[in-house]
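Q: Got a minute? One more chain.
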Amino acid sequence: MSDPMNVKVSFPVIAAILVIAVVLAGEVVTFTSPATLGAYGSSVETDTDEVSFSIECRGAQVYDVLSLDGTLGPLEDVSIYYDPAQAATIEKGHASTGARHLDENYYVEQIPHTLKVRGVCDVRVLDASDMEALVSAPGVGHALIMLSGTMPDTVYDGTESSPILKWIGSGGRLYWIGDILGRYISHGDSVETVENGTSVFLGSECIDDVEGRGTDVIGNGFCRSLYLQCDSTTFGVIPDRLPTDADYLCVGFSDGLRSSITMVALGQGMVCVMGGEYSIFQRIDLAQIVASGIGPDSRILGCEKGNMYGSVEGNIPRGDSVYVIIGRDYAAYCERHEVS
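A: Always. Here it is, folded:
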C-alpha cells in the first residue's frame, strides 16, 4: 500500500513538471507546428465599396477580419540584427514558468516561427557586416528588427547622415526593442554613448529608462483588434515629447505618459519603438505589428468576427488591406491581403 504522505509530498513536484511541459509544448504547438500552419487559409475579392473574404480551417475556431487603411504596403522580407561579436546593452528578459529565459539569441531564434504563423516567411538574420549591405539599398518593402540595445558602427555614427537613417527615409521599416533608441553605438566589444541620439531618429529626446507598465488601453481599436498583450512601457516613447509636426501612431497600452508601442514616420519609412524588456508577449505583439503592416497613418475601417466551423464567408468595408486572425490571443493563423 502506498504511503499517503508520500503522495502529498510528490504532488507539487508532479504538478510543476506538468506546468513546465504544458508551457513548453504549448509554445511549440501554437507558434511552430507545420500541421497547424497547413490547416488554415484565406482569400479576398474586391468590389467597389466592399471586400469579400473567405476563410477555411479544420474544425471549429474563432476568427477576426480587419479592414485597414493607411498601411505600409507589401512586405518583401524581414531582417533581424544579431551579432554576438558586437556589444549589446540589453539583458535577459522575462519568461513563463518553466520556460527558457529570453536572452537575445533565443529571442532571435523564436521570431521567425512567430512571424511564419502570421504569413511572413522570408526572414533572415544579419550581422553588422550584412547590415551595411542591407542599408545601402532602398528600404521600400523591407523591415529590420533590432533588439540588442545598440547599433553597429557599420550603419550608425550618431548623426542624421548615418546609413540607417537614409535607409529608413527611403522606405525602410525599423522595429526597435530594448534600451533607448539611438543612444548607443557598438564598436566590436565596446559601446559609445551618443548624446541626444533619440533626436536623430525621432526628432526629440522622447524616451527615458523609467520602468513602467500601462494600465490604460489606447483607444484607437488596435490593441483589442490585434490582440496586443505586452503592457510594459519601459523604453517606450513619450508621445507628448515628440515634435509637434510628427506623424505618429500609438497602439497598445499607456501608463499615462509612455506608450507601449509607437510608430513614427521618417521620410518614406517609419520607426516603430516597442516598449518593455524581452518577453513572449512582446514577441507576439511585434509579430502582429510587422505582419499586419500598420504604420503611423493606419486606421481600422471595419471588423468582422465570430465562430466558424470549416469555413466562413463575409463582407467588410474596403480599405487598402485586410488582416485575418484565427485564434485571437492564441493565434494559430494570420494573413495580410493587399486590396488592389
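A: The CA atoms of residues 280 and 308 lie 28 Å apart.
Q: Perfect, thanks.
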